[in-house]
Design goal:
The chain is an alpha+beta fold. It has a single domain, classed as Ribosomal Protein S5, domain 2, CATH 3.30.230.10. The chain has a 6-stranded mixed beta sheet. Helix 2 packs parallel to helix 3.
């Protein structure tokens, strides 16, 4: 969905991964990443992998210095949130220009990762870990 805010055009995308949800807005700007009101570097604890993951769709298309990424993220941990931001940015870029869809799809940025934590079963310590076997 495209919206305008004080004359600025914004593109929206929602990303999910594990239990993390990221609502992403792309705004024309200088390439900043702002997550929950803090700079992306500070929020992702200066971890280069998380920052590269979040900005990967923009770098694939060569728009890394043309758009600011504004994110509201909650749930999960930093890994899940970074992957959720990546999916949200990719979806927003598809709204920006439908021709962006093909290169993003080839890189796998438009695929929602369905893996989630498996539930714990009764009689077990975790989802699959059984108590230690005792012969006697």
């Amino acid at each position: 969905m495209q919206a305008t805010d004080q004359g600025r055009v914004m593109y929206f995308g929602t990303g999910r991964r594990k239990s993390a949800i990221a609502r992403v807005r792309l705004v024309p700007g200088s390439g900043q990443l702002i997550v929950n009101g803090r700079s992306g570097e500070q929020y992702f604890q200066f971890n280069a992998d998380y920052l590269a993951t979040a900005k990967a769709p923009l770098e694939t298309l060569g728009h890394e210095s043309e758009y600011d990424i504004l994110v509201n993220a909650h749930g999960g941990g930093l890994t899940g949130q970074a992957d959720a931001v990546r999916l949200g940015v990719a979806r927003a870029l598809c709204q920006l220009d439908p021709d962006n869809r093909k290169p993003l799809k080839i890189e796998g940025y438009l695929t929602r990762d369905p893996r989630a934590k498996e539930r714990k079963k009764y009689g077990l310590r975790k989802a699959r870990k059984a108590p230690q076997y005792s012969k006697r």
